[in-house]
Design brief:
2 copies of one chain form a homodimer.
Chain A: E1 50-53, E2 61-75, E3 80-86, E4 91-95, E5 98-102, H1 106-118, E6 126-131, H2 136-141, E7 149-154, H3 157-166, H4 168-171, E8 179-183, H5 186-191, E9 198-204, H6 218-227, E10 228-237, H7 245-258, E11 263-269, E12 277-284, H8 306-309, H9 317-322, H10 328-338
Parallel strand pairs in A: 6-7, 6-9, 7-8, 9-10
Antiparallel strand pairs in A: 1-2, 2-3, 3-4, 4-5, 10-12, 11-12
Chain lengths: 340, 340
């Protein structure tokens, strides 16, 4: 586990050779000592041997990673699942052509989506994760000693199996005895949850096209609110301020109607997500007020989890508060819709 | 100027059509109604008609933008200069294959590199910009009513000319009567500056390979320190925490030796820069102490500049403070080297 702590932002960067600089950089066409990696048909490639993330969700741009080796390709009932070894971001999990995590930067997403809600309330005990089949959010929830019960509802068993096989430092979250895995539809699962069951719900979903679409809609938020105790919190993946302000605006409007406590937007950097950032909606139900911007349950002050999971690579209490500070163009839109 | 305020993060995102979702997204191979844009030879392309940013500074990854039209290509004494119309980021300026600015996200970089230093000191009067030939930093410096004199030393006249022709909302910074443009080497310019001339120096450089290399070295920082008044400030482009921690570490060590006041690192999101973030070194010389994290000269409280330059799109006092909060992996390295 100690090695895992080395990966964030610390991979060696190749120093440029003199002949490579000043604009004459040639495209690296080949991998594996001369043979371009053969990519599966469902995987977009714009350079032979490179994976490119192309989607109508971010038209006109694409991020590409050099592929060393395809480790897995499968098609579940819900989506295409691919794992490849990249040359500079470690192993990469791709669902329906979209990067879900890389070993190099997964810490930023997993730590922020988990500790932003859990460090904002005193002594979280019961936590539900919707999606999150890779196990990374579970790993982060498990750091909290106060937590007694962690339910996870993931729709796609293949994601869980693939993560356990290829991302042991992420899937390690499944090993905690407090975790119960439910394979199934998160929307249906939530409807069956008795009112007021959870202190926190974390919605670790993919983009709102494909299997995750319903997780961005108002009836789903209403189910989440019902499943939370008074003053409970939800944190849901909420896209990019640079690319998806119209989606974010809709989410904020829906959340403002559903959640009677506070409604907030936070964001963080994740280099392999489109535009390099991802945001989160953080809301609380009516009850004891939650001031998300001021963490009252600092996980970085408690060192007991480090022995099992290694040190936090990304999250700390300062970056928690900072995550709620928005660029002016986003602040104007979001704060006007989030105000009571 | 009012239209300029519309561009940040507000370009319409095409809603996905049903048949485009679930992994079956086809690569858009063509632009301009069927004909792929012809790219100049010095411009890397991984999809026909798309520009790809490939560099040994970020091996194994590449960001690509769809090209609508090449607007300019030239070769100056220092670098290749290209301007193209992208399909979703507006016009794009590329130097030696590396994106310098796009109309859609330039606000984040220009506003942060300028207002982080200028809002940290009372009444900045004399400001020097090294590099910054596009004029965007000048535009932002000009918002400060207290400023009496703005010198800029840019090595490459072609950058200035191209910006004036293709990026009028950026090059507008050159129109302020307080601005004096010097075409020449920033290192030599600084050596000739009388001691203690400036309140602030902003180093808006490209990456430390190519013409900007010396701007990351210790003798240059020493010249900057000499050119500043006691308690004066410098802000210099300082790469990405995700990609270049070893470069950042070197810069911090150099700055700690040279600047006898405070030494700080801040960062912001810029989607079209590698890894989606860019950082800044902010240092002060011996004299009245400067607490960069707490802006004492808030430009967002003064509305007088809005009439000329439009509202700030990105910067505000909250995001100023937040920019100094670092992810744990970067905080550990930087704070240990920056400490006195």
């Amino acid at each position: 586990m100690a090695e895992a702590a080395q990966s964030a932002g610390e991979l060696p960067v190749k120093r440029p050779r003199e002949e490579e600089v000043n604009g004459a950089v040639s495209v690296e066409m080949e991998v594996n000592n001369g043979a371009a990696a053969e990519l599966p048909e469902c995987m977009s490639s714009v350079i032979p041997g490179w994976f490119s993330e192309i989607s109508p969700m971010w038209p006109g741009e694409a991020h590409s990673l050099k592929v060393e080796k395809i480790l897995y390709q499968g098609k579940s009932d819900y989506q295409n699942v691919i794992v490849f070894q990249s040359s500079t971001y470690g192993k990469v999990l791709v669902l329906d052509g979209v990067i879900q995590l890389t070993e190099r930067d997964e810490c930023a997403y997993q730590e922020m989506i988990t500790h932003l809600p859990l460090c904002s309330i005193p002594n979280p005990r019961k936590v539900l994760v919707i999606g999150g089949g890779d196990g990374g959010v579970l790993r982060e929830v498990s750091r909290h000693a106060s937590v007694e019960k962690i339910d996870i509802c993931e729709i796609d068993k293949m994601v869980v199996d693939v993560s356990k096989q290829f991302f042991p430092n992420v899937a390690v979250g499944f090993e905690d005895p407090r975790v119960t895995l439910h394979i199934g539809d998160g929307v249906a699962f939530l409807k069956a949850v008795p009112e007021g069951t959870y202190d926190a719900v974390i919605v670790d979903s993919s983009d709102p096209i494909g299997p995750a679409q319903e997780l961005f809609e108002k009836p789903f938020f209403a189910s989440v609110a019902k499943a939370l105790r008074p003053g409970g919190v939800v944190c849901t993946q909420a896209e990019s301020i640079w690319l998806h302000m119209h989606i974010i605006e809709d989410i904020v409007v829906n959340c403002r109607q559903v959640f009677k406590g506070s409604v907030n937007y936070a964001w963080t950097t994740v280099p392999t997500y489109p535009s390099g950032v991802i945001g989160f909606m953080l809301c609380s139900t009516e009850g004891p007020p939650v001031e998300f911007k001021n963490p009252i349950n600092p996980i970085d002050a408690d060192e007991s989890h480090v022995k099992t999971y290694g040190p936090l690579k990304f999250y700390n209490s300062e970056i928690h508060s900072a995550a709620f500070c928005l660029p002016s163009f986003a602040k104007k839109v979001i704060e006007s819709k989030a105000a009571k």
